[in-house]
Amino acid sequence: MFIAILVWGSVFYRLYVLLISCLSLLYPKQKVIESNSDLSQHYCFLFPVYKEQKIIKDTLQYYEQFLAQSQQIQLIFITTAKETGSDTTLKLMQDYLKNSQYQERIVVVTCPVLDGTKATQINYGLDFIAEKKQKSYVCMFDCDARISFLDLVRAEQYIKDNSGAVIYSFLPKAKPAKQSNFLVLSAGLHHTERMLAFEYAASQLPWKYSYPMGATMLVHPQLWQHIDHIPEPIDDIPLDYLLQFKKLKAKTMPFYTLVQPPPDTRNLFRQMIPIFKGVFSYFSTAHRYGIKLNIVGYGHGLLVYTFYLLEPLSIFLVLLGDWWLGILIFVQIIVNLYWVKKLSTKAFIAHSWGYIIRLLQFLYFGINMLKGEIRLSQFKTERK
Residue 374 CA to chain centroid, in angstroms? Predict the structure, then answer.
């Protein structure tokens, strides 16, 4: 009986993901938003950085173009005292800014917390903004995230036309690096499943639930009337839980942000520790913010955890020979590859391997959790 429940639960999960994927592809795309060429609001871009030596110069140069196009933008980079040595990201930034014409609008602060995570650095940046008493839209960026200035202007108009949310997310779109190895490429192709069924779908289907996406988020100033910091350890799923508790909304916009994949296999697995820790933080987030859950709240949390666990379970059951689930995953791969315009035997094989990698990532997370309390700061992505 128990095995049958697990199997049918996995089938439900796969059918749901496939159905939402197909609906999001068939639903008429939103019209391109026409907007003015400049911004009317002030924006603070927050970049938490840690061992980003390979891309920090490119990030600075890229977003200096935004500073050139608008006086309404300030860049704030939050380094961490955890990063030490003679060639730190902080040192590279300081050297670069000596010759930058925008050095007055680019701020670099260092978070002193040695055991912090990405959320710790962002919260330190939020405290810095609060001290300046700036009423700005806060844009939380990954250091490798790239949006276009035009899409930022369009996003401002989108927020005006679609009020009611406190967080507006750009759609993450991975751009695999040429030097990425097969495992990283496979994991990237597999991630298109989540992008299509959960993230792209949220921007296309009016009734689809939206949640914050950490790569690039625009935070409306109204959010700070309800909270003053974002929850640990990451800046998306735990924040989504907190928004639910506060009865606040997030919205996914039909604009893309390009992000880089993990630089290597080691980081491909390391970065999943804080991500999965955040996924399974529903109850700890409620406890941390003094939210008293009733029986409905507890039931919802358990359903959320079950839903997330059905993904690796469905993959495991396919490896055990469940051909129904195998067929559903086969069709899902075709749909995913059609969406990203990569229908080929090579891409199909790589995408298929991505499911195994995903299962291994869950196992890696589980093993580390069984070891006991771990310092999440040691699992930061590194691009040295």
Answer: 22
Whole-angstrom CA distances from 87 to 57, 83, 263 are 13, 10, 19
For the record, the structure tokens of 245 come out as 């508790």
d(C-alpha 377, C-alpha 116), whole Å: 5
Q: Would you give the end-to-end CA distance of the chain in angstroms?
A: 51
| Dist. CA 94–CA 171, nearest whole Å | 31
Of 339, 344, 358, 314, residue with least CA distance to 188: 358
Identify the pLDDT of residue 271: 83
Per the structure block, which two tokens stand in for 2? 């128990």
Q: Are the CB atoms for 194 and 133 separated by under 8 Å?
A: no
- The domains of the chain, with CATH numbers, are 2-379 (3.90.550.10)
Quick: pLDDT tens for 37-66: 788 899 999 999 988 888 999 999 999 999
Contacting residues for 310 by C-beta, under 8 A, at least 6 apart: 9, 10, 12, 13
Rounded Cα distance between 200 and 238, Å, is: 20
Q: Which residues contact 20 (CB under 8 A, 6 or more apart)?
A: 197, 198, 201, 205, 208
Tracing tokens 């751009």 back to the chain, one arrives at 175
Greatest mean pLDDT among 62-66, 233-237, 254-258 = 62-66
Residue 93, beta-bridge partner list: none
Mean pLDDT for the chain?
A: 88
How far apart CA 325 and CA 308 sit, in angstroms, is 16
Distances (CA, A) of 107 to 69, 73, 252: 18, 12, 28
> What pLDDT, on a 0 to 100 scale, did the predictor assign at position 353?
96
Pairing of strands 73-80, 137-141: unpaired
Residue 64's φ and ψ, nearest 5 degrees, are -65, -30
Pairing verdict, β 106-111 and 137-141: unpaired
pTM, entire model: 0.90
Q: What's the CA angle centered on 96, arms 94 and 101, to 5 degrees?
A: 110
22: β partners: none
**E strands of 81-121, at which residues?**
106-111
